[in-house]
Amino acid sequence: MQQANTRNYLESSCVWAPEKTFPTCSRRPTSFSCRRPGRGVPLVVMEALAAGVPVVATAVGGLPELASRHPGRVSLVTVDRAEESEIIDGIVGALLALPPSSSVAGLHPVHTARSCARRTARALRGVVDRPKKVGDEERILLITNHFHVGGAQTSARRLLAGLAARGVPVAAIVLEEQAEFPTVGTQALRRSQNGITVHCAPSARTEAIVDVAEDALAFAAAFGATTVFFWNALFEVKALFAESFSGARLFDVSPGEMYFASMARYFARPNAESSVDTPARYGALLDGIVVKYKQEIEAAEVLGAPVTVIPNGVLPEHDPALPPLPRPARPIAVLGTLARLSPDKKLEELIEAFRLLPPDLGLTLRIAGGEDGDVAYADRLRASVADVPAIAFVGQQDAFEFLREIDLFVAISEPAGCPNATLEALVYGVPVVATDHGAARDQVAAEDLVPRGDSRRLAEAILARCTDWSATWDRANYAVARDRQRFSVDRFVDDYLALSRSFSTS
Q: What DSSP character marks residue 289?
């Protein structure tokens, strides 16, 4: 059969047009494709699928990927050695495995002409718009959802400021802010000493995801980014950006448990026009994954990209905001925590633990943190302690001003991540009790950890620290010098800069 007659063979009287499928064929042939490795995805196979014709093909090149997107319509033959008898046996077996007929016609949307054209246009635009690179200059771009409240946002700002202070050109893209209503964090970056550029893409809350991704790609190209860090960014945007981005290093940074929940939701229903429809295909586009704690490595390996552990950093090791060492021991009277008033932080467990403590200890609990949009939850939380005057919600506060006023920091380590609030307490020298989840095990001594979700055990640990307060402060003083080094913002910036420089741009 000549190539020019392929469509006539598959279906008489049909007209090819982008995004259109061939009419259903009443007398259905079967399409055979025997390919050599490395030959890509044959057009004849896609034409067969468009016409609703079952396909038998050798499992080479891009054919397995094509088969995965057309389940039950492509039967693959695995041939280890190119011997005729094996090929024939494989074809016969594949034929027997095919359904007797198929009424399904049409290509998966990712293979349509319109989808391919849009992906190609995005990729070419990035190449054309990219300015000529000057020498070995690094230009680092960070893409995040917003710079509103939260540990991930605080860490992003610290990284950008730290890089800029070292003379590295940096910029950021936010995906969920409105240009006319920038968040306080965005305004602070723009007003900073180094005047960091924050570009507001069309907000993903109101605009089409493909438009958000294309705007981000255009800015990345115009900025001339040599390294891009996704930092708690929407998976829908990351998938479209990654498949079209080229000429620079690309890393995805996990903020913790929410990253993998977001990834699972996306790949359960991926963008139909994106080629990034499995974790492995996404990981293949990345130079690496960054996780914040060791226990997260195994979960990240599903992506197949190199994994690096980089804990957050909070202050320079010798920052004047830090009190001198050793911290003087004092009776523990004021407990405190710093967390967003959000359901995922499970602050009700801390409140329950406090209620279990003996009233005659005279303890008070201060809860600092801003609301995260769930006003009803914050109101319920405040109402739940109306009968406990010793518990006070003190609103959003500077972390180190807050730590100066408390004697014991209590952390509910939810959701799993690398909480800055705990690190800030450790480097400040405040004793810490935490639930054993996420990065807590990498941060806090084993004797200061309690099982998650167990308010009674948490109350017992708090009581033990309060009754033996001298030993509690001794342990804190023993660890604080080490913590100031390993959780310093200087080490944090060093690690990201070293990661960026360890990969060469193709």
A: E
